[in-house]
Amino acid sequence: MKATLSVTEFFSRISPAPGKISEELWEPFAPARHYLLEWQHYWLEVPEATHLQVGGQRVVPEHGAWFHVRFENALGLTTLQPFAHRSPLCKSIPLVVLSDKLPTPQAYWRFFRDLVTDLYHRAIQMPFHYSAPTGIGVSEANRPPAPLFVYHFLLQHAAALHQALAVLLARPHRELHTVEDEVPLGEASQADADTLLSVLHHPEDWVPARGIPLARVLQGHAPREVIQRFPEETTDTAPNRFIAHFLRQLVRAAEDLFRQPWWADVPQERRDLLRRLVETLRHALHHPALAEAGPMQQLPLQSQVLLRREGYRELLQAWRLFHQARRPLFGAVEQTIEVRDVATLYEYWVFFALVEEIQIHLETVPRLNLRYSAIEKLGWQAEAIFQGQGKLMYNKTWQGYSGKLRPDYTWVRARKEEVALDAKFRLERPQEGESPESTARRGDLDKMHTYRDALGVRAAVAVYPGDTAAFYPAPPETRRQISLRELLLGDWQGIGALPVRPGAMTAKTQSEEAQWI
User: What is the DSSP string of 144-158?
Assistant: First the structure.
């Protein structure tokens, strides 16, 4: 069944009508040319359709031929397509869902752009450490690694990769194997059963000969050449094929990294370090020990050379970390950017913003860990450890007395959860007569009561992109403002909201003024 509706006709059946994205914003919102608003009720009358496909969700009619569509806590790119049973009635239509707090493409794009710019700036400045509990079940990932992951992975492992390659190339793994070759009869030094059978089975290679015992047996003839086997050492081994394959992966990933728009913002010292590392990897691939290695046919993960031999062992561990950790945090960030999901991106950005702000207050460089977990549904967890002073955990599930809860961020000191923080991409516009500043939603503050009560933390705070900070101490006192330093390092108890917005301060002033949150 062919499509029976044009896109224009289908759009005319949506009420209220989708907004149009101006031509100057077509590129950042591509492939969408129209937008819808979150929480808005949209009605579509499509008598020909049995259902709508809205992103990954199937929507059926509610009243006759009327379909109801509403996006709740869902921002970014989506698609809309009507179907008559299995047949599409028109092509899939890309749309972008905007927040009702940033209701125009211009406002949404400005906020999204500031988020992305600031997130990359913070991410490339921070030291990360990757760890994995085990190599069991590791396999090659089909998806390419996120450039931000490659950046931090190579920074962390540059010295180890240099050292491991130096050891490996100084004493590469070799195997002794037998090669066959035909040599003149006079140069033959050995004859076994296979040699004699080969001679007898190929009389066309015989020539007249005299004076040798073999000619008497072969009626005055002898072969010109005979097969001889020689032992030969080779570096075309499974472990070396694996190492060469891994190094080529790293080089390709690094070359993609150098093409990223934010690469120019990376400190010169780090850029030089990574370029030197890539040159080392390229030189290693041209070393005779690895240049001779053929293509890898399968992962030799049980090879005793890879498991035990110095140089190989360290590179195998680096490969495991590369393939276990490549998809967690930064992969999720890249995917969120691709679909223009500003709410989820804000959640990721807040983690970086909080880590950097805590670093300024504590004057301590954190150790940031990413751990891959096959059990955790999100597939990853991140934590920033401030040695001897506490740690900030991202998306950690905690057991409360009424069930499991997972605040976006948890501040832990002395092995005790003290403060729960939750990113809320929500603003509540003030009512008439109130302050013009954007404030947190009352519903979000109510949820902070839930976190504080169920988890037993001393404070729970909503983090949102507004202007007004508020804290409600317990026992009840007058509402007051509170800084992040007071919240995390003091003993304040209660609930509240902290405004955190990208672009609020430049990187220079962040180090000069520690009270911007």
Answer: PPPHHHHHHHHHHHH
CB atoms within 10 A of CB 301: 15
| Mean pLDDT over each residue of the chain, to the nearest integer | 80
Residue-wise burial string across 209-239, b where 16 or more C-beta atoms lie within 10 A, e elsewhere: beeeebbeebeebbbebbbbeeeeeebbbbb
Number of domains present in the structure of the chain: 3
List residues bridging with 452 in a β-sheet.
none
Residue 463 identity: V
DSSP H helices in 140-267:
147-170, 193-201, 213-217, 238-258
Residue 219 domain-assigned (yes or no): no
How many Cα atoms sit within 13 Å of 509 on the Cβ side? 7
Residues 133-158: pLDDT tens digits?
A: 444 444 555 566 778 778 878 887 89
Comparing C-alpha atoms, which of 165, 154, 167, 366 is closest to residue 272? 154
Contact predicate 377/505, CB 8 Å: no
> Are 361 and 245 in a shared domain?
no
* Rounded average pLDDT over 401-419: 87
What is the number of other CB atoms lying within 10 angstroms of the CB of residue 260?
Answer: 16
Lowest mean pLDDT segment, chosen from 136-145, 188-197, 507-516: 507-516
Least confident of 186-200, 234-248, 379-393: 186-200
Q: Is residue 386 located within the same domain as residue 360?
A: yes
